[in-house]
Design brief:
Distance between the termini of chain A: 38 Å
CATH class of the largest domain in chain A: Alpha Beta
Oligomer: heterodimer
Shape of chain A: globular
Number of domains of chain A: 2
Number of domains of chain B: 1
CATH class of chain B: Mainly Alpha
CATH superfamily of the largest domain in chain A: P-loop containing nucleotide triphosphate hydrolases
Radius of gyration of chain B: 19 Å
Structural class of chain B: mainly alpha
Strand content of chain B: under 5%
Largest sheet of chain B: 2 strands, antiparallel
Number of strands of chain B: 4
CATH topology of chain B: ABC transporter involved in vitamin B12 uptake, BtuC
Number of helices of chain B: 11
Strand content of chain A: 25-35%
Chain lengths: 238, 308
């Protein structure tokens, strides 16, 4: 039997008195790439915010590593071993590459460990090493995207959440990003990938959920979803 | 005294005042960074700092250990920084942070109101609080000559202290983990939380630093003029805010540059312009207005990073 790392059990959230997610059940198995597909405005970002404690959960529970993290403060949830590569990269524009990476390791105290992890990130993205002391806001979109992923890796998380990593990037960069995500997963990090781009996502995911209007409307293995009507009609017709 | 000597002399006076303004401006810039709030009560923390020092001094006098001037000065600064800092954090939690997400107008009114509340509280609670209060002469008096320029020991000490405080604040913000949390929150609060930064604690620390630094400026001001009064915070708030705007709101170096520039403008206006002494602030604020019109982002204003 496989172990479940993250569980959303019957989760309902409210934002400005509007229910954004309604009775959502999602499970992310340890070591896998699990994806969440859905159109714009389906509530994908809200689901991530719910996991991170950034929106109010009115019903249901979220469990990470067997521990109830529902309603916990964001910085405490992060400390349990979750990292996020947020939508739009959200790097710190006035900090350098190195400073951004160090922010990624904010919860880590051991200076030596931070140095080692940074070395690893530089191996994964040699480009970032060239840009080590450049102000992040002046770097290209592709470089910022690498930095955002690298920053997520700096806390050496058990679970890494990717929020729309393909958004606003050139197709070649998108493919590179997905290869990187696969590589990170192969090294043992569980991935929860939230995307609009269904075909690319299902290539690397083993299991997926489809969210529409705040509800999970389909779930299954990547193959099952590829064949499913929801995906076929909504995402793959072109 | 030649014209050049006079300019030099005024520069020194201006620098001294300017450092004081810088210390107040730093608070404005820090608060704007982490909370997107312009805290118009900040000037009153400058005033509160000077009154805290007066209270601490009378305690020391009553207890009979006001003898060692050097130690008393240190005790006044540190004690007032702690007390003012604590009041700063308490008011932030009570009324500044709760309105930080509301429209700008709300936080503006709330902080203006908070400033009035602090001012009136000091007036009512301090014995004969409506009158100017004399400040003890604790710093060494006298002066020395440097060429034809006269430098007072007291001013030199105040200036040196201001520089030290600025260096310490700069170190805290740019070289410590706590400082990197403050900078990260200033750039993107939610992203900072996603890195594991405790947002509430970071905001508390920012207000602790801001209020404590304003308290230092308040005591410096007390020593410089030999007195303080319950209502000096209102003008200092406007000056500190203007200095932060001239320098570029949100930029800590900008606040320092802006403060010093404001101090220099004021002293030069007083020395050079006809009727300058009475109208020095008119002139200085005129320059602020010009900045607002022609360079609203300030001297070291933030470039806006936009990327598709």
């Amino acid at each position: 039997m496989t172990e479940t790392l993250l569980t959303l059990d019957d989760v309902t959230t409210v934002y400005d008195h509007i229910e954004m997610l309604r009775h959502v059940n999602v499970q992310v198995e340890k070591g896998k790439v699990v994806c969440l597909l859905g159109p714009n405005g389906a509530g994908k970002s809200t689901l991530i915010k719910a996991i991170l404690g950034l929106v109010k959960i009115v019903n249901g529970t979220i469990t990470f590593n067997g521990e109830d993290i529902t309603g916990e403060k964001t910085h405490k949830i992060i400390r349990k071993g979750i990292a996020i590569v947020p939508e739009g990269k959200r790097i710190f524009p006035k900090m350098t590459t190195v400073e951004n990476l160090r922010m990624g390791a904010f919860i880590e105290q051991d200076e030596q460990v931070i140095e080692e992890r940074m070395e690893k990130v530089f191996q994964l993205f040699p480009r970032l090493k060239e840009r080590a002391h450049q102000i992040a806001g002046t770097m290209s979109g592709g470089e910022q995207s690498m930095l955002s992923i690298g920053r997520g890796l700096m806390s050496s998380p058990q679970l890494m959440i990717f929020d729309e990593p393909s958004l606003g990037l050139a197709p070649i960069l998108v493919e590179q990003n997905f290869e990187t995500i696969q590589k990170i997963n192969e090294e043992g990090t569980t991935i929860f990938l939230v995307e609009q781009n269904a075909s690319l996502t299902l290539e690397i995911a083993s299991y997926g959920y489809v969210l529409q209007k705040g509800k999970v409307v389909a779930e299954g293995t990547a193959e099952q979803l590829m064949q499913s009507e929801v995906i076929q009609s909504a995402y793959l017709e072109s | 005294m030649t014209f050049l000597d006079m300019l030099l002399q005024q520069s020194i006076n201006g620098l001294m005042l300017g450092i004081m303004y810088s210390l107040v401006a730093v608070g404005f810039t820090l608060y704007f960074g982490v909370l997107d709030v312009i805290n118009f009560a900040h000037g009153d923390f400058f005033m509160l700092g000077s009154f805290m020092a007066l209270v601490l001094y009378s305690i020391a006098e009553a207890a009979g250990w006001a003898g060692n001037t050097f130690l008393v000065v240190i005790y006044l600064f540190i004690g007032s920084m702690i007390l003012t800092g604590v009041v700063g954090v308490a008011t932030e939690r009570l009324c500044v942070k709760p309105v930080s997400k509301a429209p700008m107008l709300i936080s503006l009114l709330v902080t203006l109101g908070l400033g009035i509340a602090i001012r009136e509280a000091v007036r009512i609670l301090y014995p004969r609080g409506s009158d100017p209060k004399g400040f003890p002469t604790l710093l060494p008096q006298g002066a020395f000559n440097l060429g034809s320029i006269v430098i007072r020991y007291e001013n030199l000490i105040i200036f040196g202290l201001g520089i030290v405080v600025i260096i310490v604040v700069n170190f805290l913000i740019n070289r410590t983990k706590m400082g990197s949390a403050i900078r990260a929150v200033a750039q993107d609060g939610e992203a900072a939380m996603m890195m594991g930064v405790d947002l509430d604690r970071t905001i508390d620390i920012t207000f602790l630093i801001g209020s404590a630094v304003a308290a230092v400026a308040g005591i410096m001001n007390g020593f410089y003029y030999g007195k303080t009064m319950f209502n000096i915070g209102a003008m200092m708030g406007v000056i500190g805010f203007s200095a932060a705007v001239i320098g570029g709101l949100g930029n800590i170096y900008g606040a320092i540059v802006g403060g010093i520039l404001f101090g220099l403008l004021e002293t030069f206006a007083a020395a050079v312009l006809p009727y300058g002494a009475e109208n020095k602030r008119v002139f200085a604020f005129l320059i602020v207005i010009l900045f607002l019109v022609f360079r609203p982002t300030g001297i070291l204003g933030e470039k806006v990073y936009e990327r598709v």
